[in-house]
Amino acid sequence: MREFSLAIVGATGLVGKEMLNLLEERDFPLSRLRLFASERSTGLALPFRGKELKVERLEKGCFRGIELALFSAGAQVSLKYAPQAQSDGAIVVDNSAAFRMEPQVPLVIPEINSGDLADQRGLVANPNCSTIQMLLALYPLYLAAGVERVFVSTYQSVSGTGQDAWEELTRQSRDLLRGRKPHPSVYPHQIGFNLIPQIGDFDRKGYSMEEIKFAQETQKILHDPRIRVYATTVRVPVFRGHSEAVSLQTRKRLTASQAKELLSQAPGVKLSEGEDYPLPLDCVGRDEVLVGRVREGGEGENILQLWVVADNLRKGAALNAVQITELLKDEL
Amino acid sequence: MREFSLAIVGATGLVGKEMLNLLEERDFPLSRLRLFASERSTGLALPFRGKELKVERLEKGCFRGIELALFSAGAQVSLKYAPQAQSDGAIVVDNSAAFRMEPQVPLVIPEINSGDLADQRGLVANPNCSTIQMLLALYPLYLAAGVERVFVSTYQSVSGTGQDAWEELTRQSRDLLRGRKPHPSVYPHQIGFNLIPQIGDFDRKGYSMEEIKFAQETQKILHDPRIRVYATTVRVPVFRGHSEAVSLQTRKRLTASQAKELLSQAPGVKLSEGEDYPLPLDCVGRDEVLVGRVREGGEGENILQLWVVADNLRKGAALNAVQITELLKDEL
Known about the structure:
The structure is a homodimer. With about 325 residues, chain A is of the alpha/beta class. The first copy, chain A, is about 30% helix and about 25% strand. Chain A has helices spanning about 15-25, 75-85, 110-115, 130-145, 165-175, 210-220, 255-265, 280-285, 315-330, and strands at about 5-10, 30-35, 45-50, 50-55, 70, 90-95, 125, 145-155, 230, 240-250, 270, 290-295, 305-310. Chain A has a seven-stranded mixed sheet, with helices on both faces. In chain A, strands 9-8-10-13-12-11 form a six-stranded mixed sheet. In chain A, helix 1 crosses helix 9 and helix 4 (about 130-145) packs across helix 9. The longest helix of chain A has 17 residues, at about 130-145. Chains A and B meet through strand 8, helix 5, strand 9, strand 10 and strand 12 of A and strand 8, helix 5, strand 9, strand 10 and strand 12 of B.
């Protein structure tokens, strides 16, 4: 079997480590795996398939000989090094927001628009975590009934921000339980036992970058400029797993039981029914997007409501990127 | 000045204690104040205006001589003792869900429908916490533009459940930070660093009681059976203060700046603008409903979005009940 040389940029981050786990779990055929990270992590070693892999520094020419490069080290690193990886001959799968809305860059959720990979020119973007999980749940309903508007409120865990935020939630929670004043540093406000209804900067209309991504990425992935997504994105004091309360206005009426039938067969989706519903706790380390609390509006109202939970580090980031990489390798 | 004899039923609960605070803060003219609670609290004493008030047991005839009785001890206690208080001659202001949807019982938010108090027959219901805060923010927009549909997702703190839930969140958070397995008892699932998308039992269509209250109470308070409220209600690991992501489909288009102008003048509402937005932390002990993140949909879309935060123990419960009581006393 053909094997591939692969690099992970941002290997020591929460998503990078999950990429390593997934390559191991899914037996990705590797001739070589190189790990890159920022200065402060170089020299570290990470376990992979029973060995220790050294973490290297990004530098000129470092991608020579690499066929596939997974980036998850933030937009600044991607902007600087993704073009270099491409010119060194690698195909880049980028988990940052740097290139997602570039018209010539496919933005792909494999279960939905893997066909867009045919147009790749050496760079494919991985959508935002919260977009991926919502669209996996929405897609079968969209195909069956059309969707005019989506109203989505998110409950996003701190692991979406990274290791520092994980530690900040731990530290602040401990301090607060001991009656001590917490000291925000990663987030602009206290996150322990609190909520922060801002993820990313605001535009002049008051929408946060995370909310704008929801709308723009959905239109791009579905190739549907008419669909409207009204998001409110909120950081909550949960470590791992993003949750979303989603309400859809469909073009045709779809009952809750029709929706459940469709969701029960949708790839990548696990449906909970009856009194059962998914929790952030349930999704950790799982590949599927968990959907529950499916309900319909009254007579004459084309409304469906869902509760959608997924591991933001897996399907929301590392897994989707690895799935894209698996499809790309088959074309090499 | 005329003074009134008043009773609080459920005086040792989180809402009951807040009622005591408010009567003191607002200088309610009292000839007598009696405190009632369940068996396990009788004999306790609570501080009020520099004295200690004994907590008494509910029993036959205990409301004789009481003019106004505030109930906040759960629906079962209200069902049993509110009729008794009425037949003993008191007017009851009930914070439970027991009588809210009875056609002859006014359901009142003073800033919105104090006129409904004219029809009271000895019992007035206090709306649900999450309904109160949403409607205070929605009302000025509703008057100006009409509202067809509301999509609301809640982020509700554990103090809405009571003292036991507050302790459960504390205990579970501590256990989890020490690597110990938490033991749910008040809630059906872990609440520490987790979310529970269920508040109250489900109906056969999968809506929770909390979600149904939102829809029904809104229609009743606004006297508008056409308005549709699609809620998803979620318990979050926050101690105090409920938050809501609210999206409105208005009948006429209202811009965000028009909405902000209206909200800045609305009674009981405090508007945050620009980069500023309210957090659960900010609302604790405050009377106002805090509104921020006001934004509008694109051209041709009659959509407004808001972020609404309030102290669920104050305006969401005790304050609204005390405000109703203040209006009722003026008619005695």
